[in-house]
Write a structure and sequence with these properties.
Length: 174
């Protein structure tokens, strides 16, 4: 069964709890979404709160993928640039698919939904994101049409002695 995507869903306690569970489950499974295991939803909450503040201020939008049971199964936060010379592209952050849904094509579905929605944003010519090297995420995003446009060696310290590249990817929309 395919995911159902919704841009800018109503933010209530159930949605917040669903995103926190997703974020913690993805992190505990080794997903490169800003945390490393072990991590709890409460440790993640300040990061979600920062996204929610940006949403309330109109700087960020949320795309949620729901599974057949209506649970939060995927997310992507899309953030506008505030710099006047960079307002023609957006960032995709915290792109996640629940580990139980890995291998079903939902990641590609999520990225296609991000692209489709962003194409409807006035004045936006590209989507930019970063990913952690050594995870295979760069190959995944490349398969979704993104091009690697930069790489900062050893910019992400996952653990002492485990530094990863910060890979910068871009999807032109024109």
């Amino acid at each position: 069964m395919a995911l159902t995507f919704e841009l800018d869903p109503a933010v209530d306690a159930a949605l917040q709890d669903g995103v926190l569970r997703l974020w913690a489950d993805v992190s505990r499974a080794g997903g490169a979404v800003g945390f490393v295991p072990p991590v709890t939803p409460e440790e993640i909450r300040p990061s979600l709160d920062a996204h929610l503040v940006a949403m309330a201020e109109g700087r960020t939008r949320l795309l949620v993928g729901y599974d057949g049971a209506g649970a939060v199964a995927a997310t992507a936060f899309v953030t506008y640039n505030t710099h006047r010379l960079m307002r023609h592209w957006v960032w995709a952050y915290t792109v996640m698919v629940h580990p139980s849904h890995q291998g079903k094509g939902y990641g590609r579905d999520l990225m296609a939904a991000v692209e489709r929605e962003v194409r409807g944003f006035e004045g936006i010519d590209a989507i930019r994101l970063t990913c952690r090297g050594g995870t295979g995420a760069d190959a995944f995003y490349a398969a979704c049409g993104y091009k690697e446009v930069g790489r900062v060696p050893a910019a992400i310290r996952v653990a002492e002695g485990d530094d990863r590249d910060d890979v910068i990817m871009l999807l032109p929309l024109n």
